[in-house]
Design goal:
It is a single chain. The protein starts with a helix and ends with a helix. Helices cover 77% and strands 0% of the residues. By secondary structure, it is mainly alpha-helical.
Length: 495
């Protein structure tokens, strides 16, 4: 890829701007509540776009266009599942989780689950933190792979060098600013991502959607069918369920759920939901169009693509002036940074609040927790960096594993804890364990129903375990019941 001075300058300017936001936020970060939740001060726009941007990551500009490029309209199953999942998560979880986290005075997700069930043994908190760290390592490394592919393609760097540079960029401002830096930068990055995903395909399209349809039909008519794959084979029920089931993962993603808890008020969450759903819909359509338009462009121009996940970068470099190309390519960096920073922050809060404070030093001060959190950011990023060093890594592959892990370990536990008063500590603990272990085991199996995306059995087994264990063991103690009643009252008061 042509490495021009203009693209490099644009990149450096962008990075300096993000670092500047990090430094301003650093000055406003006084306590662990500020560092991990921004002092619960997010308005609807930062809350919505921060949840969207931290969710979509590099896969929105690399993985999904790459999938649409290879498979055509089939990608709609995945995009549609995610859009419905986004809407349901905001509708079902947002207000209740924010209210309940205020009732229980909890910052992190493991802390919320522990206090919700009055778990004095701290087992829920420690096991939840373990799963967060395990799956986030894969998730964060997917972001670093995406950053590596970007720097490799744009600057012609060696893949390993490219990954290291990308990692340093992300870590530096997460380290400084904590949650506020992450959310403010996510707002900028979310707007940049959606703009890039709409500008690139519209510019690349010769004629309108009808011309695109004709061009795709002449390449391969099977690309335009929802029910067949690109080879003309009918999509199996397992394949369709696996693609749509991605939407179920939203209910257990700690970095998205943190945005609900950090919102300024419950009223803001209704506005935030609308913004989030519209943003997701536009971004999904844009990402799919990039893949489809990219396929037509590659076919007509005779350019070769060695990795379908690089199609967005190829289009940008081929069609735009270097300054504009620099800004649009910075959108990939934005996507990578906006997700990796959120994940690093949630992982560091799990290590600091849920491991360090619970197991090693119960009376740790707020300043000490923030310091441990910052050290954890560096430690986790080093491990994720090692995982990302394989140039063959697929962004979508790494994301799918982590996404399923969180969806199954936490999704059912969170939803049922917000709605079902009979759920008890044993049910929560068993559900988290069964959900997380199912993902790890199922991933190793193959053939027949074992080919279904592991999130489906993970959520089913976790939900059944929570319900059966709660019903077969003693009712929650009185303090847990009265806390649940208090939450219901607050839910009405805060609306």
């Amino acid at each position: 890829m042509e490495n021009s001075f203009a693209i490099t300058t644009t990149f450096i300017t962008y990075l300096l701007l993000m670092l500047g936001i990090g430094i301003v936020a650093y000055q406003r970060t006084k306590s662990s509540s500020d560092y991990f939740l921004g002092g619960r001060s997010l308005g609807p726009w930062p809350a919505a776009l921060s949840a969207g941007a931290s969710d979509m990551s590099g896969w929105l500009l690399l993985g999904l266009p790459g999938y649409a490029y290879a498979s055509g309209i089939e990608a709609f199953w995945l995009a549609g599942g995610l859009l419905v999942g986004t809407w349901l998560n905001w509708l079902v979880s947002a207000k209740r989780l924010r209210t309940y986290s205020i009732t229980t005075d909890s910052l992190t997700l493991p802390e919320f689950l522990s206090r919700r069930f009055n778990d004095n043994s701290k087992l829920i908190q420690v096991i939840s933190a373990f799963f967060i760290l395990l799956f986030f390592l894969f998730y964060t490394s997917s972001g670093l792979v995406a950053g590596g592919k970007l720097f490799e393609t744009v600057f012609g760097l060696d893949y390993s060098t490219a990954v290291i540079i990308g990692t340093v960029c992300v870590v530096s401002y997460t380290l400084f600013g904590g949650f506020l830096a992450v959310s403010w930068t996510d707002l900028v990055q979310g707007l940049l991502m959606s703009a890039a995903l709409l500008i690139v395909p519209i510019t690349a399209m010769n004629g309108g959607l009808n011309t695109l349809e004709t061009d795709l039909a002449s390449i391969n008519p099977e690309l335009l069918t929802l029910w067949n794959d690109s080879n003309g084979e009918p999509l199996s029920i397992i394949a369709i369920i696996s693609l749509v089931a991605w939407g179920l993962g939203y209910f257990g993603q700690p970095h998205i759920l943190a945005r609900f808890k950090a919102s300024r008020s419950n009223k803001d969450l209704t506005t935030a939901r609308r913004i989030a759903v519209i943003w997701t819909a536009l971004s999904m359509v844009g990402a799919m169009l990039v893949g489809l338009v990219g396929l037509v462009y590659v076919t007509n121009s005779g350019v070769s693509v060695d990795d379908s996940e690089k199609i967005f970068m190829l289009l940008v470099n081929s069609l735009f002036h270097p300054v504009i190309a620099g800004i649009l390519l910075a959108a990939i960096l934005a996507a990578v940074m906006s997700t990796a920073d959120s994940q690093l922050l949630v992982s560091s809060s799990a290590l600091a609040e849920d491991f360090y404070k619970q197991l090693f030093k119960k009376d740790a001060s707020s300043e000490e927790i923030v310091l441990v959190g910052r050290i954890a950011v560096i430690g986790i990023s080093v491990v994720a960096l090692v995982l990302a060093m394989n140039p063959e890594s697929s962004v979508l592959g790494l994301v799918s594993y982590a996404w399923a892990g969180f969806g199954a370990a936490f999704g059912p536990a969170i939803i049922l804890s917000l709605y079902w008063s009979r759920m008890n500590r044993n049910g929560a603990l068993a559900g988290i364990l069964v959900g997380g272990i199912t993902i790890v085991v199922w991933k190793q199996l193959e053939g027949g129903w074992f080919d279904v995306y592991e999130i489906v059995p993970g959520i089913i087994f976790s939900s059944l375990t929570i319900i059966l264990t709660s019903l077969l063991t003693a009712e929650p103690e009185e303090s847990v019941k009265s806390q649940h009643e208090k939450f219901k009252k607050q839910l009405i008061e805060l609306n």
